[in-house]
Amino acid sequence: MQFKLTEERQMLQDGLRRYLADSTDHEKIAAATDGATGLDHALWDGLAEMGLPGAMFTEDQGGFGGEGFDIMTVAEELGRAGLPTPLIDSALLSGTVLAETRPELTQDLVAGKIVGFAHAEPGARYDLAHVATRAEKTAEGWTLTGNKAIVQFALAADGFVVSARTSGATDAKEGISLFLVPHEHVTLRDYPLNGGGRAAEMTLDATLPEDALLGEAGAAYALIETAHARAIAGQCAEALGLMETIKDLTVDYLRQRRQFGQPIGKFQALQHRMADVLIEIEQARSAVINLCGNLDTPERDLHVSAAKNLIGRVARQVVEESIQMHGGIGMTMEYALGHFAKRLSMVDHRFGDADTHLERFIHLSQSAA
Amino acid sequence: MNLGYTEEQKAFRDEVRAFLNDNLPKRLSDKVAGGKRLTKADYEEWHAILNARGWLGVNWPTQYGGTGWDAVQRHIFEEETTAAHAPRIVPFGVAMLGPVLMAFGSDAQKAHYLPRILNGEDWWCQGYSEPGAGSDLANVQTTAVRDGDDYIVNGQKTWTTLGQHADWIFCLVRTSKEGKRQEGISFLLIDMKTPGIEVRPIVLIDGEPEVNEVWFKDVRVPAANLVGEENKGWTYAKYLLTHERTNIAGVGFARAGLASLKRIAGSQSHNGKPLIQNPFFAAKVAQVEIDLMAMATTNLRTIAAAASGQAPGAESSMLKVKGTVIRQQINALAKQAVGPYAAPFVSELLDEGTNVDPVGPAEAMPATQAYFNNRKLSIYGGSNEVQRAIISKAILEL
C-alpha cells in the first residue's frame, strides 16, 4: 500500500507541468477555441513528443504506460492547465477500440494522429446502448446512415471510430458495431464548447469498404464500455486537476482581496466554506485513485460510477463556491477563474452525470449482493 | 501507487483475524453488534485478553510493553477489530495518557503508571473540558495552588467520559494567571479517591450516563503527580490531542454502520417491498457509501504518509470532519429506516440477557440511540468548526 508515483510517472508529471505552464494559459486556450479546429496544433504536437498519448498505451501497443495511474498522471496535468485536448477521444476512446481491433494503427495515435470518437447520438443522453445509426451490409462493403452528437475535436481529426447498429432495437446492447470512417465521409456542423475546444454534430451517409468494420459485427458493446471506463478515468483526473487550479486561484484571492479593511480570507464564513471545498477535493482525489487502481479489476464499473458520481457532485460545489468567493471578478471572462470553472462544470455533462452514475452504482451493487 | 496490502501486511491481517476468531468472546461481540450497554467489567475483560497477547498498547513502542506496530498495522488492527464487533479499547489511559507520559513523564511516573494502564489496575479518565472551556480549551479555570509538597486543586471539569468508572484523572489545571493563557496551564495526575472530589453522571440524549461532571474542592494532590514542568501543560495537551486524532476517520465504525444500515433497510418494508429497493432511500445509502469509499482511501493516504514518517497536519482535521459527517449520515439513515419504531425507548432492552421483549424490530432502538449518541462526533475532539478553522489556517496562512 503506497500512494507515491513511480519515478517515471513523477518525471512525466513534472515535465508536463513545466511544459504546460510555459506553453499555455487561459487566453491562448480561448484563442484556440475561436480558431479553426479548436486545437492549438503546435502545442498538441509538442505534447505528443513528450509522450502524452504514448502514456495511454502499453509497450505492446507501442506506448510506454497504459495503466490507470498513467491516465491519472497525464490527465490531471491537462486539467491543471485547463487545456482541452483530444486525449480522451483519440487516445482513450478510439485508442482503446483500435488497440483491440487494429493494433497496427496505435503507433499513429502514439505519434499524435487524432482519431475522433463518434458514438453518442442526439436523444441518447447518457445511454451507451442507444445507437440509432444504421450500418447495412452491401455487396461492396457497408453503408452508414445516421447522426452523431457532440463529436469532440471533429475538425482536428483525420478519421473517426463510429458506432452503428447492424441489428437489434435502438436501445439494445446487442447489435452494435464499430467502424473506422475517414474524415471525408462525414458531414460536420462545427461549434465551440462551453468548456473550451470545439465539437461537431455529425451526419453520416457513407459507403465504406468491407474492412471498415472494427472487430466482430454486432458485438461491440463491451468494448465501448471498456473504452468509456478509461475515458471516465481520464475525465475524472482532468476534473481533479481543474479543481486543484481553481483551489489555488481561490486561496490566493482570499489572501489578497481586501474588504472592510482586511483580507476576505479572515472572515470565518469564507474560511469554513473554503475548508469544506478542500475536504471535498481530497475526496475527489481518493475517488480518482480508487478508479485508476481498479481499471483492470472486476470492481471496475462500481468504481467508475462511484468516481463519476462523486466528481460530479464535488465539481459543482467547487465551481459554485469558487465563483461565489471570488465575487464579481469570478463572473468575468477576463479573469482565469471563469474559464476553469466553466470547463469543470461541463464534466457532469459527458459520460453520465452524478445521478446517472448513482443509479448505476445502486444497480451494480444490488446485483452484486 | 498501490492500493493493496503487501504480503507481510496480509499475513499480519490474517494473524489478527485468527486471534479475534479464537479470543474475542462471543458474549462481547454479540453485545457490541446488538448495540447493548457495555459494563466496566466488559471493557476490563477485553483489555485483559488483548494485554495477555501483548496487543493492548496498540500505539506504544515495545520498550514500554506496547506492540511497536507502524501506522498501517495499527490501521489493520482497527479495521479487523471493528469488523469483528470487538469492544473498543478505552482510549484515556492507552491512547491518550500513555504517549504523554512516555514523552514528558519522569522515569518514576513511567515506571509506576504505564504498567498499571496495561494490566488494568488503573482506569483513567480525561479532565480537559470545563463549563467555560470547551472548544476554547485554553480557558481552563480549575486552579492548582502550590502548598508545600502538594497542590490544592479547586474547580470543575465536565464531559468526563466514563469518569464514573475511573480510578485516576489526568487534568489540565491553571497554575499561573500571568502572561498568555496557554502559558499558565499544567498537566496533573489526580487519584479519584482523594477527598474533595465529587462525580455526578450526566444523562445524554441517548439515555445513557456516558459522561460526568467532576468537582474538586480543596483537593490535595502530591506535587510529584505533576507531569513535566509547571506551566508547560498546554504543550503536553496538544501532544495528546494529536494522539487522540489517530484513527479519527473512524472508517471501521462507518463500515460496520453501513453494513448494519443495509441489513435494516433490507428487512424493513416500504409499500410492500424492501426499503432498500425504494429509489429515494437507495440513493441516499449509495451516496454515503460512495463518500465512504473515497474517505477510506483518503484515510489510507494519510496512514501511508504517516508510516513513511510524515507528521499529520491539517489532514487529520479533514478526516475528522468528513469521517464524522459520514458516520452521522449513516446513523441518520438507520434511524430513518426503522420508521415509527424509532419512537419507543425501553432502557432495559440495552442490558445483556434482558427478558424484556423488544418493542418492534430488535434493531430499532439501538439504531435510534446510536443516532442520538453520535451527534457527539462532530462536537468532541475539537468540534468540526474548530477543525475547519485549523484547515483554513493551515492553507490560507492568514
UniProtKB/TrEMBL annotation, chain A:
<protein>
    <submittedName>
        <fullName>Acyl-CoA dehydrogenase</fullName>
        <ecNumber>1.3.99.-</ecNumber>
    </submittedName>
</protein>
<dbReference type="InterPro" id="IPR009100">
    <property type="entry name" value="AcylCoA_DH/oxidase_NM_dom_sf"/>
</dbReference>
<dbReference type="InterPro" id="IPR013786">
    <property type="entry name" value="AcylCoA_DH/ox_N"/>
</dbReference>
<feature type="domain" description="Acyl-CoA oxidase/dehydrogenase middle">
    <location>
        <begin position="117"/>
        <end position="193"/>
    </location>
</feature>
<dbReference type="InterPro" id="IPR006091">
    <property type="entry name" value="Acyl-CoA_Oxase/DH_mid-dom"/>
</dbReference>
<dbReference type="InterPro" id="IPR037069">
    <property type="entry name" value="AcylCoA_DH/ox_N_sf"/>
</dbReference>
<dbReference type="InterPro" id="IPR036250">
    <property type="entry name" value="AcylCo_DH-like_C"/>
</dbReference>
<feature type="domain" description="Acyl-CoA dehydrogenase/oxidase C-terminal">
    <location>
        <begin position="222"/>
        <end position="344"/>
    </location>
</feature>
<dbReference type="Pfam" id="PF00441">
    <property type="entry name" value="Acyl-CoA_dh_1"/>
</dbReference>
<keyword id="KW-0274">FAD</keyword>
<keyword id="KW-0560">Oxidoreductase</keyword>
<keyword id="KW-0285">Flavoprotein</keyword>
<dbReference type="GO" id="GO:0003995">
    <property type="term" value="F:acyl-CoA dehydrogenase activity"/>
</dbReference>
<dbReference type="InterPro" id="IPR009075">
    <property type="entry name" value="AcylCo_DH/oxidase_C"/>
</dbReference>
<dbReference type="InterPro" id="IPR046373">
    <property type="entry name" value="Acyl-CoA_Oxase/DH_mid-dom_sf"/>
</dbReference>
<dbReference type="Pfam" id="PF02771">
    <property type="entry name" value="Acyl-CoA_dh_N"/>
</dbReference>
<dbReference type="GO" id="GO:0050660">
    <property type="term" value="F:flavin adenine dinucleotide binding"/>
</dbReference>
<comment type="similarity">
    <text>Belongs to the acyl-CoA dehydrogenase family.</text>
</comment>
<dbReference type="Pfam" id="PF02770">
    <property type="entry name" value="Acyl-CoA_dh_M"/>
</dbReference>
<feature type="domain" description="Acyl-CoA dehydrogenase/oxidase N-terminal">
    <location>
        <begin position="6"/>
        <end position="94"/>
    </location>
</feature>
TrEMBL record, chain B:
<dbReference type="Pfam" id="PF02770">
    <property type="entry name" value="Acyl-CoA_dh_M"/>
</dbReference>
<dbReference type="InterPro" id="IPR006091">
    <property type="entry name" value="Acyl-CoA_Oxase/DH_mid-dom"/>
</dbReference>
<protein>
    <submittedName>
        <fullName>Acyl-CoA dehydrogenase</fullName>
        <ecNumber>1.3.99.-</ecNumber>
    </submittedName>
</protein>
<keyword id="KW-0274">FAD</keyword>
<dbReference type="Pfam" id="PF02771">
    <property type="entry name" value="Acyl-CoA_dh_N"/>
</dbReference>
<dbReference type="GO" id="GO:0016627">
    <property type="term" value="F:oxidoreductase activity, acting on the CH-CH group of donors"/>
</dbReference>
<dbReference type="InterPro" id="IPR037069">
    <property type="entry name" value="AcylCoA_DH/ox_N_sf"/>
</dbReference>
<dbReference type="InterPro" id="IPR046373">
    <property type="entry name" value="Acyl-CoA_Oxase/DH_mid-dom_sf"/>
</dbReference>
<dbReference type="InterPro" id="IPR013786">
    <property type="entry name" value="AcylCoA_DH/ox_N"/>
</dbReference>
<dbReference type="Pfam" id="PF00441">
    <property type="entry name" value="Acyl-CoA_dh_1"/>
</dbReference>
<dbReference type="InterPro" id="IPR036250">
    <property type="entry name" value="AcylCo_DH-like_C"/>
</dbReference>
<feature type="domain" description="Acyl-CoA dehydrogenase/oxidase C-terminal">
    <location>
        <begin position="231"/>
        <end position="396"/>
    </location>
</feature>
<dbReference type="GO" id="GO:0005886">
    <property type="term" value="C:plasma membrane"/>
</dbReference>
<feature type="domain" description="Acyl-CoA dehydrogenase/oxidase N-terminal">
    <location>
        <begin position="6"/>
        <end position="121"/>
    </location>
</feature>
<keyword id="KW-0560">Oxidoreductase</keyword>
<dbReference type="InterPro" id="IPR052161">
    <property type="entry name" value="Mycobact_Acyl-CoA_DH"/>
</dbReference>
<feature type="domain" description="Acyl-CoA oxidase/dehydrogenase middle">
    <location>
        <begin position="125"/>
        <end position="218"/>
    </location>
</feature>
<keyword id="KW-0285">Flavoprotein</keyword>
<dbReference type="InterPro" id="IPR009100">
    <property type="entry name" value="AcylCoA_DH/oxidase_NM_dom_sf"/>
</dbReference>
<dbReference type="GO" id="GO:0050660">
    <property type="term" value="F:flavin adenine dinucleotide binding"/>
</dbReference>
<dbReference type="InterPro" id="IPR009075">
    <property type="entry name" value="AcylCo_DH/oxidase_C"/>
</dbReference>
<comment type="similarity">
    <text>Belongs to the acyl-CoA dehydrogenase family.</text>
</comment>
